[in-house]
Amino acid sequence: MAQSVLRGTVALDGPSGTGKSTVARRLASELGAAYLDTGAMYRAVTLAALRDRVAVSDVEAVALAARSVDLEMGTDPGHPSVSLAGENVEHEIRGPAVTGSVSAVSAVPVVRELLVAEQRRLIRQSAEQPGGIVVEGRDIGTVVAPEAGLKVYLTASSHARAQRRTAQDAAFGHGTDLERTHADVRRRDNLDSSRESSPLRMAGDAVELDTTELDVPGVLAQLHKLIEQRGLLDREKRTIL
C-alpha cells in the first residue's frame, strides 16, 4: 500500500504552548518526514550555559558557551533526541531552570547565528533524503527556511497555552501551577516578540491557524489539508507492506 510522503519543508511557527511540538512530530511521522525541534536546540544551549554557571544576562559569556557546545539533534520523529557531548538531555532541557532562561539566551545574536546555520544544514541534509522535513520553532518561516513550501503560524489564547504548558510540565515531572505558568507564557511572549534578533512574528505568506478550540487530531487535519492544497505530497516514494 502506498503512503503519502512529504516533499519539501513545512515550517510551523508560533509562541509557546500552541501545540507545535506535538503536532509537528505527529505530522512528520504520518508523512514519512524528518522532524526538527529548533526550540530544543536553544534549550540545550541554555542548559550548557547554566551548567557552566554562566549568567544568562552576560551576552559575551553566553556567546562563548554557545561556540563551545557539542550539540547533536536526532531528526527521527519517532525517537527525536537532543544530546550535549553525547549525553541525552531531552528531559533536563524541559525543566523550570531552562524554561526560565531560554528566552534570554535565544535573544543573543551569536546564539541565533550559530543555531540557524546548523538548522539550515539539517534541513538541507533532510532534503537530500527521501521525504521532506517538518520544522518547528519561532522564526522558521521568516529566517531559517523562508523558502518552505508551507508556512503555518500556530496561535492560541494565552490561557489555553498556559493550560497546555502546565500539563506538559506535569508530564515531565516538573511541578508548577497554572497562574505561574500563565505569567511565564506572557513574559516569554513579550521577550520573544521584542528581541532585536529574529523576533517572533508571522511570515507574510504564512497561514495562521488558531488552535485554542482544536485538539491534536483537529490541528493535524487542518495541516494535512493545507499540505494537500500546496501539492507537497508524493505518493510514489514509499510503500508500506
TrEMBL record:
<dbReference type="InterPro" id="IPR011994">
    <property type="entry name" value="Cytidylate_kinase_dom"/>
</dbReference>
<feature type="binding site">
    <location>
        <begin position="14"/>
        <end position="22"/>
    </location>
    <ligand>
        <name>ATP</name>
    </ligand>
</feature>
<comment type="similarity">
    <text>Belongs to the cytidylate kinase family. Type 1 subfamily.</text>
</comment>
<dbReference type="InterPro" id="IPR003136">
    <property type="entry name" value="Cytidylate_kin"/>
</dbReference>
<keyword id="KW-0547">Nucleotide-binding</keyword>
<keyword id="KW-0963">Cytoplasm</keyword>
<dbReference type="GO" id="GO:0005829">
    <property type="term" value="C:cytosol"/>
</dbReference>
<feature type="domain" description="Cytidylate kinase">
    <location>
        <begin position="10"/>
        <end position="228"/>
    </location>
</feature>
<dbReference type="InterPro" id="IPR027417">
    <property type="entry name" value="P-loop_NTPase"/>
</dbReference>
<dbReference type="GO" id="GO:0036431">
    <property type="term" value="F:dCMP kinase activity"/>
</dbReference>
<dbReference type="GO" id="GO:0006220">
    <property type="term" value="P:pyrimidine nucleotide metabolic process"/>
</dbReference>
<protein>
    <recommendedName>
        <fullName>Cytidylate kinase</fullName>
        <ecNumber>2.7.4.25</ecNumber>
    </recommendedName>
</protein>
<keyword id="KW-0808">Transferase</keyword>
<dbReference type="GO" id="GO:0036430">
    <property type="term" value="F:CMP kinase activity"/>
</dbReference>
<keyword id="KW-0418">Kinase</keyword>
<dbReference type="GO" id="GO:0015949">
    <property type="term" value="P:nucleobase-containing small molecule interconversion"/>
</dbReference>
<dbReference type="GO" id="GO:0005524">
    <property type="term" value="F:ATP binding"/>
</dbReference>
<feature type="region of interest" description="Disordered">
    <location>
        <begin position="1"/>
        <end position="21"/>
    </location>
</feature>
<keyword id="KW-0067">ATP-binding</keyword>
<dbReference type="Pfam" id="PF02224">
    <property type="entry name" value="Cytidylate_kin"/>
</dbReference>
